[in-house]
Specification:
single chain, binds glutamine, globular, alpha/beta, three-stranded mixed beta sheet, Rossmann fold
Length: about 200
């Protein structure tokens, strides 16, 4: 039984729970530190990264989650979740809390000045064509040498992987397509458990 947490402080938790269930994992909503016990992976949903950072601190999840991620807990961040996993932000708030781990610089609300929200079909390496929903989405401005770019919009990466960490600027959970979650569960979570990919 693969238990995958969904950070449930804010954002579209229900849709991730549904996608993980279809992907064959047992979803666990995470609101307090004890909810982190025994997880094989965690999903960080979209929402508002500055608010999520504050809530992570208030609910005393920031420290425990940072240690778990640094210790190799597989994580998948969508949109605001991608921002939380980034090592650096452009256009963030000065006091914005991050979990870090992914060697990327993200630009918050990157598509914002051109298009607020949009949808696009993306060719995601290892997954196939995915219909991406972008809502005030970030893009990856810099990716470190260990980071694998799985999909881009123009020259900007919007899906990246670095070892046990996966992040997308878009929201696959909003289209009823569980393939990104299945990729996470089978390729990142199962590998961390020592299982076959
Ligand atoms: N713009 C939001 C932020 O900076 C992210 C939006 C989203 O998660 N859909 O946190």
């Amino acid at each position: 039984m693969t238990r995958v947490g969904v950070l449930a402080l804010q954002g579209d938790v229900r849709e991730h729970v549904a996608a993980l269930t279809v992907a064959g994992a047992v979803p666990v909503e995470v609101r307090r530190p004890t909810d982190l016990e025994g997880l094989d992976g965690i999903v960080l949903p979209g929402g508002e990264s500055t608010t999520m950072g504050k809530l992570l601190r208030i609910f005393e999840l920031l420290g425990p989650l940072r240690s778990l991620l640094a210790g190799g807990l597989p994580a998948y961040g969508t949109c605001a979740g991608m921002i939380l996993l980034a090592s650096e932000i452009v256009d963030g708030r000065r006091d914005q809390e991050l979990l870090g781990g992914l060697d990327i610089t993200v630009r918050r609300n990157a598509f914002g000045s051109q298009v607020h929200s949009f949808e696009a079909d993306l060719d995601v390496a290892g997954v196939g064509t995915v219909h991406g929903v972008f809502i005030r989405a970030p893009w990856v401005e810099r990716a470190g040498p260990e980071v694998e770019v799985l999909a881009s919009v123009g020259e900007h990466p919007v899906a990246v992987r670095q070892g046990h960490l996966l992040a997308t600027s878009f929201h696959p959970e909003l289209t009823g397509d569980e393939r990104m979650h299945a990729f996470f569960v089978r390729r990142l979570v199962a590998q961390a458990e020592g299982g076959a990919s």
